[in-house]
Amino acid sequence: MAYCLYRLKFSTGLHIGTDKGGRSLDDGKFSIHSDTIFSALCCESVRKGDLDKLYKGFENGSITISDALPYYGDDYFLPKPIVHTGIVNREESQENSKMLKKLEFIPVSAFEIYINRIGKGMEIEPERLQRNFGGLSSYTRVSLRNNTPQPYEVAYWRFSPNAGLYIIVRYKSEDILSLYENTLFSLGLSGIGGKQTSGLGKFEIQRETLPQNLDRLLNDSEAEYQMLLGTALPHDEELDEKLSGGCYMIIRRGGFVRSANYSKTPRKKRTIYMLSPGSCLKSRFSGAIFDLSEKTGTHPVWRCGKTLFVGVRL
């Protein structure tokens, strides 16, 4: 198995709902969970006639992806690890503590230094870890309810010129990687996320080799903790074992089925709860792909619970 990464350079704004659940048109975030990317790739591959090949590649582990995570310039960022050391730095300022709680991503170039400092209870300067990835903007739309105009806001993320997202890919062969790359390229033309009919979510892709420090973290399967780089969930029979001794967060995954053939009316996917990126477990797992379709649906609705890991040494 080998690794590479793809940069996603957005030419338009991006609307991705928050992890809070419920309606979020007037709010949003900029990273994209791996299960969302998988679903979007499946929808795109239906139009290309490659769905079976793509699904089998993910299902048998021939290809696995991370979340779409931020980059800035030449620096790539990882999720902030969810770890509890039991060490409290009582000298850390209240302002620093608040900034660290809000921090979502850590640059790869400073990742091991960050882990070492929190493991020893040393002070961390969060402003050195932050970058200007961009910001939220919004536009107004009007819907008609009972012939009454109802204005509403749509929020979208606009990346700064030096910023965008990247996806790490682990692959078994150039054939499966080529299929993934072609589908990702096509998805960039169609768009990802919400409000694609308004022109949001379009991007260009560029394949890159992994930096050495990131490659080392991805291959460190013997570290004390293994951190998820995307949303994932083990098989039911191994769930208790994999969660034992870990530090993790659970996020709700839902949304609507994006298929005109699934039912006559728009239907929601069955809700499932998954491990969030940044969760740190004692060992890696392969994960599963779950069918969340209902009896009235005409085809499966897959949610991918497979992702990549990096080693975390406290």
Describe this protein's structure.
The chain has 314 residues and is of the alpha+beta class. It has one domain (2-312). Helices cover 24% and strands 29% of the residues. The chain contains seven helices and 15 strands. It has helices at residues 34-48, 51-59, 94-102, 108-119, 174-190, 212-218, 239-243; strands at residues 2-10, 63-72, 75-79, 105-107, 134-145, 148-159, 163-171, 203-208, 225-228, 250-253, 272-275, 280-281, 289-291, 302-304, 309-312. A six-stranded antiparallel beta sheet has the order 4-3-2-7-1-8. A three-stranded antiparallel beta sheet has the order 12-9-15. It has a two-stranded antiparallel sheet with strand order 5-6. The chain is globular and about 60 Å long. The model has no long low-confidence stretch (mean pLDDT 86).
The largest β sheet comes out as: 6 strands, antiparallel
How many helix segments? Answer: 7
Whole-number radius of gyration? 20 Å
- Percent helix among the residues? 10-25%
Q: Which structural class do the helices and strands define? A: alpha+beta
Overall 3D form = globular
Q: Please give the order of strands in the largest beta sheet.
A: 4-3-2-7-1-8
Number of strands: 15
Distance between the amino and carboxyl termini: 27 Å
Uncertain runs are: none
Mean pLDDT: 86
In percent, how much strand structure appears in the residues?
A: 25-35%
What are the secondary-structure elements, in order, as H or E?
EHHEEHEHEEEHEHEHEEEEEE
Name the features.
single chain, 314 residues, 15 strands
List the SSEs and their pairings.
Elements: E1 2-10, H1 34-48, H2 51-59, E2 63-72, E3 75-79, H3 94-102, E4 105-107, H4 108-119, E5 134-145, E6 148-159, E7 163-171, H5 174-190, E8 203-208, H6 212-218, E9 225-228, H7 239-243, E10 250-253, E11 272-275, E12 280-281, E13 289-291, E14 302-304, E15 309-312
